[in-house]
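Why does residue order matter? Because the sequence determines the fold. Keep that principle in mind as you read this record.
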Amino acid sequence: MKLGEALVKESLITREQLKAALERQVIFGGRLGTNFVELGILKERDLLSFLSRHFKVPAVDTAQLSAVDAETTACLSRELAEKYKAVPFRKDRNRLHVAMLDPRVMTNIDALRFITGYDIFPYAITELRLLHAMEKYYGTERDLRYISTFGQEEVGKPTAKENKEQILKIKEEFCNAREKEEIVAILLNESKKIASRAAIFIVKGDKMVGWKSRGVSADNREIALAPHSIFADVLSRRDYYRGPLLRIPENQHLVELLGGVPHDCLLAPIRIREKIIAILYVDNGNTSVLDASLNYVNTLTMMASLSFEIVVLRKKIREL
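Structure:
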């Protein structure tokens, strides 16, 4: 059974989501699973767990790939690692434990057994994690697309305590906001931590209208809400988008506004009582990737959505 059909059978995705991922795969390439992660349909860890069940092999653990010794990685040359899409991570006696993109292809396993002289024990791994490991241990350069999806190295990452304190501070700011403009200001200010450019677009009928922006002149700019555009995609799926901005006619006005096509951008919906009223757009320019995970932006937009609801309710109470 094909991977997509197996995911549908396990009720991890819908047929509509499978169709969306297949269409994206035609445009961007990569494994189908990678496209599910990029679309936000599956989390990377959930995909890895599924692959383990699907291929009937263990899933490689993050910790197992974090510090592989040079003697183990030397069991495979860079050329062989790239050819067989495999990274060895543990060696004991005559056994070599290898994370593989295709762990059930016996011809590959037999070839590795012959080349290394070890019994090969295959493990499931996602494309995103494999490419990260190949870059780390073999110097194989990753495309910007895979860097942005999988995330940056965690050097200088704030501690859990610092993150908690920062979130509490932001919560207080959103709770104390009395006007919509205050909420927008908080969003744009906090987005500085992850992106050099940010803009909030309001949904107005068949167009998106720039409300406030930073790093790009989007204020009062109107963009037609064309079918298949990046804005229409977010509104129809009612979910965020993370990835490159596709150069298609429907996105042309946004491309012109941004002065090019970003390699990595993020759009997150802002709601009032489940109705999407606006979309937060952020990027790091047209040649750089974003610096943070989706969780931070999702937290920001969720708090902003609630803050908008509170402001609206306050206004209704005053009008009674």
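Residues 160-319 form a domain with the Beta-Lactamase fold (CATH 3.30.450.40).
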